[in-house]
Amino acid sequence: MSAAEDPGPPSPPPRLRVAVVGAGPAGIYTAEALTRQQEVPVAVDLIDRLPTPFGLVRHGIAPDHPKMRAIRDTLHRALDHPAVRFVGNVEIGRDLSCRELHAAVDAVVYTYGAALDRQLAIPGEELPGSLAATALVAWYTGHPDADRATVEAALAGARSVVVVGVGNVALDVARVLARTPAELEPTDMPQHVLDALAGAPVERVTVLGRRGPAQATFTTQELRELGELAEADVLVDPADLELDPAAEERVAADRVASRNLAVLQEWAQHTAQPGRTTVTLRFFSRPVRLLGEDRVTGVEVERTVVDADGRASGTGQTTVLPADLVVRSVGYRGGELPELPLDPRRGTVPNDLGRVLRGGEPSPGEYVAGWIKRGPTGVVGTNKHDARETVATLLADVAAGVVRPGSSGDDDLVTTLRANGADPVLLEDWRAIDAAEVALGATRGRARTTLHEWESLLAAVKDAAARTR
Ligand SMILES: Cc1cc2nc3c(=O)[nH]c(=O)nc-3n(C[C@H](O)[C@H](O)[C@H](O)COP(=O)(O)OP(=O)(O)OC[C@H]3O[C@@H](n4cnc5c(N)ncnc54)[C@H](O)[C@@H]3O)c2cc1C
């Protein structure tokens, strides 16, 4: 064979180019599952609209839960993988449409979460002093889009707080509001958040659950923690803990519900101690109206009964609870991304094992994982199994020839984004933000302080780039 005829060594198989939209736990676990498999070589662009990764691990998990927040270190390993590129500060639907993104890569996995709040749909809900938990949580975790003025105006002068909802987020909110400044001091909350919380005169927090203790969705660990606050006592009305036969059956069959009940029974013996904040858990209570003229002054609460299937209905018996601040924590839902289908009722993208369905049919090369796939349920780790399922579906489509590695050409996504006028923040840039947060925290003896403004986040990137030039 002459040299001209020698085909040389075989060229490596083309890499499967995948864009993952959202660098929260679901996006990061998707990237991890893609890099851990051996079937197909991959190149993953992990895109987020924020210049920072971790989604709700950064802007959801309560800052007074440092152990839980430390899961960032584990998640970071996937970002460090050579086949994964973090592409922050890029919003799909604004900087690049779904269609353009899909054309630029072989497959897209949408993991953009479920960041919108569910409404109570009762009169007065829009009054100043009524906040969605999403708004309060975004503010206390330093999300750069938080509406600081609205939250701080609602918090100023708040002595009596009503939190609507009995899930873990409601408990996070009640706990953060009932903590002392000294308890919050070591957290990574921005300084203005610590100052505003220290200045809020909160004396009473009432958590309202429309169903009974047997149906509450909080976990026992979160519940117990309420009882360990430095200067707050938890109160429960013993009458709320009397179970009907259906609730008894439920508690007997559900370990979490029975452990929760044991904790609540202990608290039912408590009485309020003078000078200490109270956190009262009220069950069988649903808000029917927020009262007030130009801001919230109270909540009209209706007593409920719960049927054998766990459904609550009103009894018509109402009382008024004074409240200067109402926080609605009744769930999250996914929002629409232009050009992507959404089931408005469930707030999720219709899918079959992670394959996006358009008009009921699988859309080749489009997938979902995490909260936008299954709804806002489970803990961080739940997204790992969920992402693995989606990646298995994607790989099955590659094996079946539905998705072809290399079919999208060689154009680099970051180059395309820059040509479109976007300013992507890459892994080194995120490291600069990370270092700036650690340095800011050190000025007050803390491990970290969250940078909470777009300007300061992007300035940290620019300052680091200027130093290395
Ligand atoms: C207040 C709160 C507290 C919680 N506390 C705990 C806890 O203590 N323990 C626990 O285990 N779990 C907790 N969870 C649950 C946990 O945070 C979720 O299971 C998990 O974050 C869901 O992951 P996700 O990746 O689907 O969504 P997310 O974490 O929301 O990530 C979605 C990402 O997509 C990005 N994004 C959105 N739109 C776009 C777009 N158009 N273009 C590009 N990027 C986009 C967002 O910026 C975000 O980074 C909590 C949740 C909440 C809301």
Automatic annotation (TrEMBL):
Annotated positions binding NADP(+): 210-211, 222, 378
Recorded family membership: Belongs to the ferredoxin--NADP reductase type 1 family.
EC number(s) reported in the record: 1.18.1.2
Catalysed reactions, semicolon-separated: 2 reduced [2Fe-2S]-[ferredoxin] + NADP(+) + H(+) = 2 oxidized [2Fe-2S]-[ferredoxin] + NADPH
Residue ranges of domain FAD/NAD(P)-binding in the record: 17-182
Binding site for FAD: 26, 56, 92, 371
Pfam families reported in the protein's UniProt record: Pyr_redox_2
Species per Swiss-Prot/TrEMBL record: Geodermatophilus siccatus
Lineage of the species this protein comes from: Bacteria, Bacillati, Actinomycetota, Actinomycetes, Geodermatophilales
Superkingdom classification of source: Bacteria
Cofactor: FAD
Protein name, as recorded: ferredoxin--NADP(+) reductase
Gene3D superfamilies per the UniProt record, alphabetical: FAD/NAD(P)-binding domain, NAD(P)-binding Rossmann-like Domain
Keywords, sorted A to Z: FAD, Flavoprotein, NADP, Oxidoreductase
GO molecular function annotation: ferredoxin-NADP+ reductase activity
SUPFAM superfamilies cross-referenced by the UniProt entry: Nucleotide-binding domain
InterPro entries, sorted: FAD/NAD-bd_sf (IPR036188), FAD/NAD-binding_dom (IPR023753), Ferredox_Rdtase (IPR055275), Ferredox_Rdtase_adrenod (IPR021163)
